[in-house]
Amino acid sequence: MNREEALNVVRDPEFLRDLAGLNAMRYSDSDIYAEWRRLFPEGLSGERELFIERLRYRSADFVVCRGRFDRILLLSPQELREFCFTLGACIMGFYIRELVNTGELFRYRKLLGDSLFDYVYYFAAYAPYADDLGIRGRLSVIRSDEAEQAVLLSGCYALYRVLEDGSSSEILPFIRKKLTCASEEEIFGFFRVSRPLKAVKTARIGGLVRHCLTRCGFSW
Known about the structure:
Shape: globular
Largest sheet: none
């Protein structure tokens, strides 16, 4: 964890308090949480800079990453939005190829960067990500004026399905809080799905999530 990642965690006091609770639940019998409480007996008040430095040099001391995608918690809300947009662009590659407005194509290139745009535009059309998630039918009727919203919500939906299917269930409440760009109800409503959710194939999507996280600077 670098300093910027640590700042993302401590920027929101409520989030930090809840994350402390998660760590306490996972490792209540270890000295990791006990040591943090010794340094900060009053909870969140006080020595934040010391805490950030501690995270910077001993990253395992606080954010306990047990599941495959727990490190997503280190993204700020804005970074999480950008991550979901990138993920959604790959899922919607088959549609982005069909955008008729040249200006829109240039906008997507600017948002995604050349290398990712080339991947989406030239290769993602052949990847069955939308089929795996069971949302290709919905995406195939998207109007051009709602394409950007569909890209973002596709990424959000894929993230939820991957986390629900194969990661630490404890991090989902944190993701719901940090994913401020779209509520879970909005995401599921857009794709016309409701609980209990039908099973989807998440293996390829999980690989895509790891690919996009690597682009965000995370190492595996």
